[in-house]
Design brief:
single chain; 306 residues; alpha/beta; seven-stranded mixed sheet; binds NADP nicotinamide-adenine-dinucleotide phosphate
Length: 306
């Protein structure tokens, strides 16, 4: 065995980076494994974060950079590699990666979540040609054009408001007649003149030639359909936990979230879970960061008594 870490943190979003900061300050021998070179997780695609105390209005990318810089200042060790499996059958746990096995006394899983797809005709075909999951990344391509956002959560509403600043017209299509998004975002949405909400409706097909030209919108009330001419389709229908490589010995819900309370302890001693991949009521940057701190506290306690 080359090295034995006290803790390996898998993932470098707000949960993983906060865990890195706490683990470095606790002087634990720590390794953070990230799949992509850019740290920050989902927030790097967030245009504006308006509810993190003290950093009002910060751009998500800048926030990710700040979190990473903080961990770097504490000399945290990062490795960009893909995790394939983890073996937690003995006290020395093994993280199996595309570059070989790494050994550790404890693990914090902070793998986050990813975009859910609609699974409708045209969605894959027009990916990057009018279909997008990131308004912040692709919105600028639709200046003075007509765009549609699908979904009714925080992301969908934030995306619609963001797109309205550059698109000629934005449709927000939601399958119910009530939004899930925070009320403050809803107020902003309803007062934006060039946004029109289409309630009780789903998108069933995306059409185009070189680029998207139109979509089929279906009423969830009477099943009627109509064609809507649009240039861009932004899909914001929630997220799926990134827990596929986590073995089933670590308990998950039916929706594949890893089960743990606020102490971030999974059913396996020495294995902790932090951030969006954990079962929790509120998935926000601040709750992910809070998990990172709690997970390290639990890991420290485990290391002290194991
Ligand atoms: P979300 O809150 O799960 O909302 C997903 C939306 O998509 C819901 O309105 C849902 O409809 C709809 N939907 C799901 N599947 C669908 C389908 N197949 N067809 C049509 N519509 C579908 O997801 P999110 O907006 O991506 O947000 C993810 C998490 O990040 C949330 O916890 C959110 O609060 C958090 N977030 C936080 C911030 C922040 O801290 N500032 C910013 C953005 C997001 P129903 O309502 O009918 O279920």
């Amino acid at each position: 065995m080359d090295q034995l870490y006290d803790v390996i943190i898998i993932g470098s979003g707000p949960a993983g980076l906060t865990a890195a900061i706490y683990a470095q300050r606790a002087r634990l021998k720590t390794l953070i494994i990230e799949k992509e070179y850019a740290s920050g997780g989902q927030i790097i695609n967030t245009y504006e974060v308006d509810n993190y105390p003290g950093l009002q209005g910060i751009n998500g990318y800048d926030m990710g950079v700040k979190f990473k810089e903080h961990a770097d200042q504490l000399e945290a060790e990062f490795k960009t590699v893909e995790v394939l499996d983890i073996d937690t059958s003995s006290d020395v746990k093994v993280v199996k990666t595309t570059e070989g096995d790494i050994h550790t006394k404890s693990i914090i899983i902070a793998t986050g979540a990813r975009y859910r797809k609609l699974g409708i005709p045209g969605e894959e075909e027009f990916g990057g040609r009018g279909v997008s999951y990131c308004a912040t990344c692709d919105g600028a391509f639709f200046r003075d054009r007509t765009t549609v956002v699908v979904g009714g959560g925080d992301v969908a509403v934030e995306d619609a408001i963001f797109l309205a600043r550059m698109s000629k017209k934005v449709y927000l299509i939601h399958r119910r007649d009530e939004l899930r998004a925070q009320k403050i975002l809803q107020e902003k949405l309803f007062e934006t003149e060039n946004i029109e909400c289409i309630w009780n409706s789903t998108v069933t097909e995306i059409h185009g030639d070189q680029q998207v030209t139109d979509i089929i919108v279906k009423s969830t009330v009477d099943g009627s359909t109509r064609k809507l001419d649009v240039d861009g389709v932004f899909i914001a229908v929630g997220v799926i936990p990134n827990s596929e490589v986590i073995p089933d010995t670590i308990k998950k819900t039916e929706s594949k979230y890893i089960i743990a309370n606020e102490d971030c302890k999974t059913n396996i001693p020495g294995v902790f879970v932090a951030g969006d991949v954990r079962t929790k009521a509120l998935r926000q940057i601040i709750t992910a960061a809070s998990d990172g701190a709690n997970a390290v506290t639990s890991a420290q306690e485990y290391l002290m008594f194991s």
